[in-house]
Amino acid sequence: MENQNYDALRAHFNSFDASKLRGSVGENSAISYAAYVLDRIAPPKGSLMLDVGCGDGLIMRAMLVLRPDLHIDGIELAPKLTERAKTNNPQSKIFCGNIMEMDLTNIPKNIIIFFHLVFCNIFLLKI
Ligand SMILES: C[S@@+](CC[C@H](N)C(=O)[O-])C[C@H]1O[C@@H](n2cnc3c(N)ncnc32)[C@H](O)[C@@H]1O
User: Fold this and answer.
1) Less Cβ around it within 10 Å: N or C end of the chain?
2) How many domains is the chain built from?
3) What percent of the chain has pLDDT over 70?
4) Which residue's CA is the nearest one to ligand 1's atom 24?
5) pTM to 2 decimals?
6) Residue 21 counted as domain residue
C-alpha cells in the first residue's frame, strides 16, 4: 500500500463517526470484548501493552477497567481519534502516527520503548 493510501485512510478515520468504529458494538460491549481478549492473552500482572490502531481508545479503557494493574499505550493514525483516545485514557501515552512509517532506529538512547504485548483490533497492514 502506498503512502497516499494511508493519507486516504487517515482522512477516512479522521472524519469517521467514532460511535460506528466497532460497528454495532457500543461502549458497553467494549467491556465484553476486552474481557474476551484479556481472557485469551492473559497478560501477566503489570504488563506494558501497546494498542496499535487504538481508535477512540474505548477498548483500551475497558481493558484498564478490568485490569487496572496493566499499562496500555496506543498508536492511532487519525488525529481526531487520537485526541479522543487521549481523553478516554489520560493515564496512557497515545501517539499519533502511522505504525508502518515509524522510525524506531532513531530514538534517543535515553528513551526506552518496551512492551510485553502488542495487540490490535482491525488494523490495515502493508505486506
Ligand atoms: C476499525 S478501527 C478500530 C479502532 C479500535 N481498535 C477499536 O477496536 O475500537 C481501526 C483503527 O486503526 C487505525 N489505523 C489503521 N491503520 C493504521 C496505521 N497504519 N497506523 C496507526 N493506526 C492505524 C485507524 O485510523 C482506525 O482508527
Assistant:
1) C
2) 1
3) 76
4) 53
5) 0.83
6) no
